C-alpha cells in the first residue's frame, strides 16, 4: 500500500449561513383596537356544520367541531396502511408532495425520495482522481449530485472536473477509457475549501439498476480523500441497519490522472 509520494501539487490526495432577516413593522393603533378574533360558526345540528369534505367528521356542540378522518383518500396524507398509492389515490399520493410514498423511489421521484450518503470529509491525502465501487442492493436508484472535496490548492473557479461511470467494478479497467461512460464534464467548477462540499449536479439523473457499479471522479487541480484500510473493503454496509439499505460502498484507489496505470491504494472517496 502506498501512503507516500501521492501528492501532485505539494498537497494531499477524496469525497466530498443562514442570515436572519428582520423587518421593522409599524402597527396602526386603530387596526389593533378594531381587531376581533374569528370564531367557529354557531350551530344547532350536525347538518349545519357539513363542509363537503369526505375526510372530516363535522359535529355540532354549540359551535361546529371538525376532526380529520384517517385512512381516507383526500385527507392530504398518502397512507400505505390504507393501501393508498398513486394509482388508488392520486389526490394524496403524487410525486412532489414532499413524502417518498409507496411506489416512489429515487429513480421515479427524485424530488421526494432524494437522500444523501456521506462517506468521509477527513481528507489527509489527495490527488487528481479517485476510483471506487458500490453495490446497488435491491432497488433502482438515481444519483443526482456528487459532493466532492476539493483540495485547498483548488479553491476558487476554473476547475476542470469530470465524472465517469461503468457497470461492474473498476478493478480491471483503471486505464481502459473505453469501458467508462462520461456523466459530467465542466472546465469552470468553483471549488469550496477543503472540508466543505463542492456539489457537482449531474445534467440528468444517473439511473442505477441492482448490481455492482464503479465511478471515477477527476479534478485537474486536485481532490482530497482519505487513506483506507484495505482496497475493496466495505466502508459503508447497506445491509447492516444503516440509513441507506440500497447501497454498499467500498474503499477504492487514488490516481494521478484519469487513464494511467499508477494508483495509490487503499483510498476512501
Question: What does this molecule look like?
Answer:
It contains two helices and twelve strands; from the N terminus they run H-E-E-H-E-E-E-E-E-E-E-E-E-E. It has helices spanning 29-33, 110-113; strands spanning 56-61, 63-68, 125-136, 141-148, 156-167, 181-191, 198-208, 211-227, 234-236, 247-250, 252-255, 264-268. Strands 3, 5, 6, 8, 9, 10, 11 and 12 form an eight-stranded antiparallel beta sheet that branches. Residues 1-5, 7-11 and 13-38 have low confidence and may be disordered.
Quick gist of this model?
The chain is mainly beta.
**Overall pLDDT level:** 84
- Amino- and carboxy-terminal Cα gap: 16 Å
Helical proportion?
under 10%
| Major sheet size, sense and barrel closure | 8 strands, antiparallel
Tell me, briefly, the overall form: elongated
| Radius of gyration computed on alpha carbons | 27 Å
* SSE pattern: HEEHEEEEEEEEEE
Query: How large a portion of the residues is in β-strands, by DSSP E?
Result: 35-45%
Low-confidence stretches: 1-5, 7-11, 13-38
The structural class is mainly beta
Strand tally = 12
Q: Total number of helical segments?
A: 2
Amino acid at each position: 500500500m502506498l501512503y507516500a509520494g501521492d501528492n501532485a501539487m505539494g498537497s494531499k490526495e477524496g469525497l466530498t449561513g443562514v442570515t436572519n432577516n428582520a423587518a421593522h413593522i409599524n402597527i396602526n393603533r386603530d387596526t389593533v383596537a378594531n381587531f376581533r378574533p374569528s370564531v367557529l360558526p354557531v350551530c344547532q345540528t350536525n347538518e349545519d356544520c357539513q363542509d363537503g369534505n369526505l375526510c372530516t367528521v363535522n359535529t355540532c356542540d354549540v359551535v361546529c367541531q371538525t376532526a380529520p378522518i384517517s385512512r381516507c383518500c383526500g385527507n392530504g396524507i398518502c397512507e400505505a396502511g390504507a393501501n393508498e398509492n398513486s394509482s388508488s389515490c392520486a389526490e394524496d399520493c403524487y410525486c412532489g408532495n414532499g413524502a417518498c410514498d409507496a411506489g416512489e423511489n429515487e429513480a421515479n421521484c427524485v424530488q421526494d425520495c432524494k437522500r444523501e450518503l456521506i462517506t468521509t470529509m477527513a481528507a489527509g491525502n489527495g490527488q487528481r482522481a479517485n476510483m471506487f465501487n458500490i453495490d446497488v442492493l435491491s432497488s433502482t436508484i438515481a444519483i443526482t449530485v456528487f459532493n466532492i472535496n476539493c483540495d485547498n490548492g483548488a479553491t476558487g473557479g476554473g476547475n476542470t472536473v469530470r465524472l465517469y461511470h461503468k457497470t461492474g467494478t473498476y478493478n480491471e479497467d483503471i486505464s481502459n477509457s473505453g469501458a467508462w461512460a462520461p456523466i459530467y464534464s465542466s472546465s469552470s467548477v468553483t471549488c469550496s475549501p477543503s472540508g466543505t462540499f463542492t456539489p457537482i449536479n449531474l445534467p440528468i439523473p444517473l439511473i442505477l439498476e441492482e448490481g455492482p457499479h464503479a465511478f471515477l471522479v477527476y479534478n485537474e487541480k486536485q481532490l482530497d480523500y482519505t487513506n483506507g484500510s484495505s482496497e475493496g473493503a466495505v466502508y459503508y454496509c447497506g445491509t447492516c441497519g444503516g440509513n441507506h439499505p440500497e447501497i454498499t460502498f467500498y474503499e477504492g484507489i487514488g490516481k494521478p490522472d484519469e487513464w494511467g496505470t499508477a494508483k495509490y491504494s487503499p483510498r476512501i472517496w
